[in-house]
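Lecture notes, unit on protein representations.

Consider one protein chain, 394 amino acids long.
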Amino acid sequence: MDRQVEVVAGNHVVVRVAGAVVVVAHRERGRVTAESAAVRVAEALAQLITAAAERAPDGPGRLVAREVTGWLMRDAARFGGRVDLGIVSSADSGAVAVFLHGAVTAVLVGDRGTEYIRGVDAAFTVDRVLEPPAVALAVFADDDHGRIPPLPERGIGSLSEGVAPATGAIVWFDGTRDRNRPRPNPGAHRRPDDISEPPYPAPTDQIPDARRGASAASADPEFERRLEETAKATTVLVKVRGFKCARAHPSDPRSAFCTVCGMPVDQTQPAAEVVRPPLGMLVLDDGATHLLATDVVIGREPENSDAAQRGLIPIRIDDSSGGMSRAHAEIRLVNWDVTVVDRGSTNGTRARQPGYHDWIRLQPNHPVVLAHGSELMLGNRVLRYEPASPPPFA
């Protein structure tokens, strides 16, 4: 991206590398230093992004998302503590790719207003490919209360390459430098119990919450409780019988290669109880991805479904055909298998296994095991199930 990138002062880490912008939150005590975990994470991400840019010079955004997802699964734990990061990079056809994991927020400012994309709202990651906003795209590390600073007026600073201590970065897309631009206010992201002591200016309006499709003013405590429960579901450690590769990654005992890193697995070792890693990812027809670390319910409005109340992660998918139900289908993880279950939807769920041309309509409430490369059709949307690990010997 050949754009002006301004950093906003703070105590986190911002890196500009190969045209991409990386924000990594510093969650340790004291000032960020060269030895901080956030800096070491940023260095690792910079290497991945540089390699991705060499392989896809016309727009590495989608490749960056896949590589960083794999890195989060394989290597993030070695840095200790939680890893919160955001990446903005160019994608094919002039689009821009936004990748978020953890407590980071992207802010898109365009002609029609401001959109907030929060990493903590995703089951694992946010991976979106978007048209460039008319004005700016910023990424900030959330504070301890889940808040971000207001977008400042455009200045003259520009980070062209390298690293800087900051709370976030702004990529400016408009061609002018209007110092009187209205400042979008992220105050609506505050939780109700945080409003009494606001560290930033009070909001002048409410910002829509993408999870509900309604304003933040219409808070539903019961819905918030269920969201917290489903968010906790992603941290539940599911233990199954499996093998370990030479790098000690847990792996499907039926596979000759590691489920996590792709390395060969000794098939003669005795099976042991291991913590099951994510079993793959769903790739939507628009390029968005959802890592399968726990059971999910998919539909046009799955948040209020009985499945979401039971703890399944709701994945909302827009559908213009009218053929998708509110809670259309479930993806359930059974031992090392990924299964799909149609929930008795009005128009049905269709599946196509790899190597087959025809779609098959699933029988309601009967689970079907998916192989890597399988496709699902819900309404007019198509999802593909892919492995989350790299190919063997990657």
